[in-house]
Write a structure and sequence with these properties.
Layout lengths: L2 H16 L2 E2 H8 L4 H11 L1 E3 L7 E4 L10 E4 L2 E4 L4 H11 L6 H8 L4 H9 L4 E5 L2 E5 L3 H16 L11 H13 L3 H15 L3 H9 L3 H13 L25
Antiparallel strand pairs: 1-3, 2-3, 4-5, 6-7
Helix pairs in contact: 1-3, 9-10, 9-11, 10-11
């Protein structure tokens, strides 16, 4: 049997026993000081490297047992089926139904994520919106991002499970549209402005998309509420609405 095959089998046996090993441990196992020699042997077996600890730990694809997020934690090291931490975060956000906050990602990945998130935002790989005082990170795909934002709005508004409605988001939207149809022009504008205030920065645009109204209308409603300039006696301001038709003085 060739020495290469013997080395590979010995390395496989050690990794199956220890699960994860550092490059120095692998060198000792193969009795070499050459990093490239170790990597060649690992490549033959199909290896993975940790996204934690600066890629310090190595294992094999056949050993990893990933969870629903594609993450495998072994001892103090964490591995991802997506490879690097940067690629993992991007994939998780892209496949999410409601985006992720930094705190949520840190809980899933067990590492600091803020620096990678900033890099991804700066390079336009992901986008972010501030909601309820925190940044939520979304995919850059407009169609998918809109769905993520709508789902996130529902989650933030009903953070208490005891208060969460038992209907779906589509049913909630249908009910909202029906509710809006019962309001007059001013009431719709003020309601839109109120919802925008609840959402914070960027609320005008998101509420305008949700309610299918002009962002300027939402902004106006918000400004009226903040300024206390609402005239409760009228629907439109003086001069608004359809003009009266004057009768012809000739009697025609």
């Amino acid at each position: 049997m060739k020495k290469t095959s013997i080395d590979a089998e010995h390395l496989l046996s050690c990794l199956k026993n220890k699960k994860i090993m550092t490059i120095d441990e692998l060198k000792t196992t193969l009795r070499t000081q050459c990093r490239m020699t170790v990597l060649r042997k690992l490549t033959m077996l199909g290896y993975i490297s940790s996204y934690s600890h600066s890629g310090k730990y190595y294992s094999l694809k056949r050993i990893a047992r990933y969870n629903t997020y594609g993450i495998w934690s072994c001892q103090s090291a964490s591995f991802s089926q997506y490879g690097t931490l940067k690629n993992t975060i991007e994939c998780l956000i892209s496949s999410s139904t409601q985006g992720y906050t930094a705190c949520e990602l840190k809980s899933i990945l067990n590492v600091k994520v803020e620096d990678v998130l900033l890099e991804l935002v700066t390079t336009n790989m992901i986008t972010r919106k501030k909601m309820a005082g925190m940044y939520v990170y979304y995919t850059t795909s407009p169609h998918v991002r809109k769905k993520q934002e709508l789902t996130r709005v529902d989650t933030i508004q009903y953070a208490n499970d005891a208060m969460r409605p038992t209907v779906s988001m589509h049913e909630l939207k249908a009910a909202l549209i029906l509710f809006l149809s019962t309001l007059n022009e001013k009431q719709r504008r003020l309601y839109a402005g109120y919802e925008s205030l609840k959402m914070g920065h960027g609320g005008d645009t998101r509420i305008a998309e949700l309610l299918d109204v002009n962002p300027k209308t939402v902004a106006r409603g918000r400004q009226e509420l903040l300024g206390g300039t609402v005239n409760v006696e009228t629907v439109r301001e003086p001069g608004g609405g359809r003009k009266d038709i004057k009768k012809n003085s000739t009697g025609d």
